[in-house]
Design a protein that fits this description.
Blueprint lengths: L1 H4 L2 H7 L3 H49 L2 H35 L14 H31 L1 H21 L23 H19 L4
Helix pairs in contact: 3-6, 4-5, 4-6, 5-6
Amino acid sequence: MPLVCASPLKIAVLGLPPPLLILRLSNMDRCTRMFTHSFRTSSARIQTTARPMFSRCQTTLSEAKALNWAEYLALRGSRHKWQTAMTIPSCALGLFGGAAYFGSLDTDPMKPIWGIDPFIFYGACTAACMGVGYIVGPTLGSALWRIVYRRSARLVDARDREFYQRIAKNRVDASLQSPTSPVPDYYGERVGSLRQYRRWLRDQGKYKRKVLLPEE
């Protein structure tokens, strides 16, 4: 439109030949249209991408609300059983593997290792291998549990945050415990049902009364 309305006087003032000026103005108009189209396309693409993400978040929240506490605690208890079940073979594997490896090494009682008797050193290393198995076992059990219960794993993760908030709110303050009398199940790891959760609450209250109230 500006090309049609441009007068010869304006073209002369710009100091450019009319064909060259028309070509430049046409290129500018084309670039403006391309930029506007690209901006609109990017905005539409962002909105299209954001809508599924928002709907997915809403779906996750609604599914988490659909998982009641009894079902959540049952799934949590099954996860704890898987972790415990995998800890035993992991410890045994670490123990036998360490014993097989360090037992096959040449040992000279007259040559200490880092100032320690070789038999004691290799025994400590074997025990360390068993400790590694004890640490790896729960992680392996949790991974296997997530494979078996992959449909419910996301719902359990969503409930875990709320459950741990309840545990932190209702448990006894750690500063009240003593080395000879620790807080019972401080992290609520043995809670696997509503009955166990109520018993855990009673144990926490009993421990708090025992510590805070003077004996008669």
